[in-house]
Request: fold
Amino acid sequence: MTSLWPRIEPLLAGVQKPARYIGCEEGAVEPVHAPDKAAWLLLYPDSYEVGLPNQGLQILYEILNERPDAVAERSYAPWTDMERVMRQQGLPLFSVDTHRPASDFDLLAFNLSAELVYTNVLNCIDLAGVPVRAEDRKATDPLVCAGGHCTFNPEPLADFVDFVVLGDGEEVVAEITRVVREWKASGRTHDSRRHVLRELSHVEGVYVPSMYDVAYDGERLVAVTPKYPDVPERVEKRTIADLADFPYPKRQLVPLTEVVHDRLNVEIFRGCTRGCRFCQAGMITRPVRERPAAQVRQMVTDGLKRTGYDEVALTSLSSADYSGIDEVVSGIVNDPMCSGQVSVSLPSLRVDAYTVGIASEIAKVRRTGLTFAPEGGTWRIRQVISKLIREEDLYGAVDSAFSQGWQRVKLYFLTGLPTETDEDTAGIVELARNCVAVGRKHSNRVSVTASVGGFVPKPQTPFQWFGQNTVEELSRKIGLLKDAARHAKGVQLKWHDPKATLAEGIASRGDRRLGRVIETVWRRGGVFQEWSEFFDLSLWQDAMAEHGLSIDWYVYRHRTEDEVLPWSHLSAGLHKDFLWQDWQDALREHGTPDCRWTPCYDCGACTGYGIEHVVASATPPAGGSQGTGQDLSSGGFVPVELLSGAGGAKR
Amino acid sequence: MRLRFRFAKLGKVRWTSHRDVARMWERAFRRVELPLAYTAGFSPRPKVSFGLALPTGYESVAEYLDIDLDPSRVDGVDLTALPPTLSAALPAGVDVTAATVIDARAESLQHEVTSCDWSITVAAGATAESTSASEAWRQAGSAPLRELAAQALAAPTLVVTRERKGRTVEEDVRPAILSVDVLDDDQATGTISLRAELATQPRALRPSELLKALSPELVEVSVRRDVQWIVRSDGAREEPLPLALAPDALADASRRESLHVRRLVGATRASPGATSSGDGVGEEAAARV
Reply:
């Protein structure tokens, strides 16, 4: 079948933001399909504006289209108005590149960045005209798969996906392509579908849920065991050893309409070893692999020239930790080609690595939004979560920013953390208030926004055993913060809806029994649950009750060391002993310093896979208090190193 | 130094908004490293001024924008080469068809343009379920629409209601309808084509509003802006930057092979304030800056 465009186009005049459905981005390709090529449809199960910038999807889009044996196109969840008219007209989900029906592809590959999109995954499969349950799929249906951080516990989606991929996708897509091409060549029969799934289970990093039996004892999960001897008992994640081998995206997509993160994005490193215990991304993407500085510069130069963007984000989980970040930032800002018009933004900043030097360089062009993430309000709770930044670090960082002309700084916090006391909670507003006081030295107009999220324990982290705070408890804590913030001049408080925190908690650490809940929520219209205008907790609560599942059991109770977790058979390389020990250390208020600059703790991520940290420079980033030989006990003095020529606050 | 560009917006890209188009141009200018002048101040913006907004979903072969170049860096800017270079830096479907230097003191496009010619294709009696014309309309052909147009043009006033800032207001749109010509109908698709000239002062009347005034049963299938007119007080008509090709030929050629069009099309006569320009098909807007 060919393009559905003639049927799509008449619908566009009646929907919001029709440019979501036209494709045509700079960098988009219209690949030529062929019987001997595996056809991938890469799907982001959220709106176009949220999904288009996703770098993981764009990287795979390029890598696959460069291959002679594969083609890749993209699709995003149609907004509800478009979905309505598509269903009225019997129009299936389509790709935006050549507007081909989704069911024409061999693979529907979902990017799972967040749990609340799960119902959208089901909706997209259904809109594609494919049965939502894997067991109902016919021989000719596409294979439904998923990658992304959420696949480290894919069990809630086990009923709906044919397979998932753990870890980095750059290399494994080639192996999957090979297996799928053989399947395609053999003719899609009932037997060949079973065969291809079995073959896929042999690919390292690929997990095929239907190849495993799950045993329960009452509420308790007892075991997840392979059905066949050739299927691995434990699936290990994939990790690319060196980011320098993958300078992607080379042709970042430039959308025609406004999207989030509408700028050039260059990934400067992957992985993070700061060891923050709440952070799933930091745990599952180890080790640190920095991109060589020269390659970063080249990608920035080429990317700016090709796209015409005037902003570049240097992305990673903690960008100021990149060794040699000062040189890279000042290199871009002072590049004559950029003629002072290109601004640099560093998402995900550690306060202890943010210096006046970086601040003054960024301020030369445009003061991009500045967000720091102390996460916890007191030194005690930050030791519990192993976010070992001290108040002095934070005040130094905001002082750097305010001294360079910033008027507003945003601080991220979590509440509902293990062992959190009301004193810890109140410390959030206290820190924000003190930051305002620091800023008042420079300007009377400064303000600080404290953005507070409810903590959801995530699989494959030391906090995976922790019982999440109830909606009532989180609401009480937010109430405390609101009261405190009322009297704090210059402090603005923002908070995440505790109800959404509960729904995320339900989906995060569930087992396969959660599949029925997700399906029920979806069937009752619960799509776009990440959007407050559509989110409805009662859908989730009712579905849990209907299927006899207890929110207390899945979300609120503390889990025990001996229990089988739904993701115990899936590995991010981290030894269970390491995670349990780290959890116990948390309860004892012991932090764990960054292992990049200290001896190895043998978490398993490097040793298990025979890989190592890759750093671009032998010098740790400036200003860091962690692992740089400085005294970590509270109250110690941390010198903030100033770059020569940078004015502002010397401490 | 101020430059004026004329461009077309055809095909899928028509589903982008006026703001989207503005962003496309800003990126294109940076890609071709055109030395734009910037506003002074805390957050410098390039000096770019767009003409009348084109409603999302409409095509056009007559869009315009004016830009100011940084006077200290204009040396070496080749105006002849700009249309093809910029077209290559813009998304498919956005093609620059002419460029010229204009007087920096010239009136803004928004202020100067007084009316637009539109090509409109409608299906009559269509519904949400079916976008083709109803059977009754299909059999009647273009005659009933011709009659409706004649009645509208003969009427002294044509009052329509519309939503404005959340309130329903009544407005006489008759003065803004300068001409309506109903062309032949297409039996195969059940659509009828018409051409209309609609005023842009004091506000721009949209083709959708014209259709609403003619009959509630008319559904837009496609709309294209063909010409923007500047009508002088003495009645003389001119375009902000004219082209030698007729709108249909231009759109056809642009769809077929944009690069080809870029070579074919040039300004036919000097627009107000131009230092120089070509004078016919096959010549570029040949001003060297």
